[in-house]
Design brief:
- The chain is mainly alpha-helical.
- It has one domain.
- Helix content is about 55%, strand content about 0%.
- The protein contains seven helices and no strands.
- The chain has helices at about 15-20, 20-35, 40-45, 75-105, 110-125, 145-175, 180-190.
- The longest helix is centred in the middle third of the chain and has 31 residues, at about 75-105.
- The chain is elongated.
């Protein structure tokens, strides 16, 4: 089975970030390629016939997935260094870039004029809630930078959950490490910036 590879980084631009569907699609594709199929990706690292076939291995059912199935540490480290961490780094780079776009002024906001007009009308409105209890409700349009900031915040939360789950499986199958995913990723980043 060929080894999984990380999803290539998209061309980063404010236009990419403001296209929330495209942003979510990239993150979803990247996660499904590596993290959602982590068990299959890690199982692909296991080479069962290294010592040859043992007929007694089929005489009883193996219920413990770890029984005799420790994966070679070199294969695990290569998977983490060449597939897992680069995939995580690419997603981190995209989220960091788009978070910067979300906190920057947006002179090209297509709804800016409409929001300003709505805001002016809202200030002029006289509300008598006794006559119309629903007249006070006004839902101003949210600037697209705020909408993007919400998407980024949500996606970062999803990313944390997915990475913790993935790291748990990798640690279990590749020889448990007491180091958390954040520490391992930071160490990989330091080694790859030289």
């Amino acid at each position: 089975m060929p080894q999984a590879s990380s999803t290539p980084a998209p061309e980063l631009s404010p236009r990419f970030c403001f296209n929330e569907r495209l942003l979510r699609d990239f993150l979803s594709l990247s996660r499904s390629t590596i993290d959602d199929s982590i068990t299959q990706n890690v199982n692909a690292l296991f080479t069962p016939a290294r010592e040859g076939f043992d007929p007694s291995s089929t005489s009883q059912r193996q219920t413990d997935s770890r029984a005799g199935r420790q994966i070679d540490t070199t294969a695990c480290q290569n998977f983490k260094d060449k597939v897992l961490f680069p995939s995580w780094q690419t997603r981190s780079d995209v989220l960091t870039y788009c978070a910067g776009v979300a906190t920057s002024p947006d002179p090209d906001d297509p709804d800016l004029l409409l929001r300003e007009t709505e805001s002016a009308k809202d200030r002029e409105r006289v509300v008598d809630e006794r006559l119309d209890p629903y007249s006070a409700r006004f839902f101003p349009r949210e600037p697209r930078t705020e909408s993007l900031a919400n998407v980024i915040r949500n996606q970062r939360t999803v990313e944390e959950i997915i990475r913790a789950r993935t790291w748990g499986i990798v640690s279990e199958r590749c020889g448990g490490s007491s180091e958390g995913w954040e520490g391992a990723l930071n160490r990989w980043r330091e080694q790859n910036q030289r």
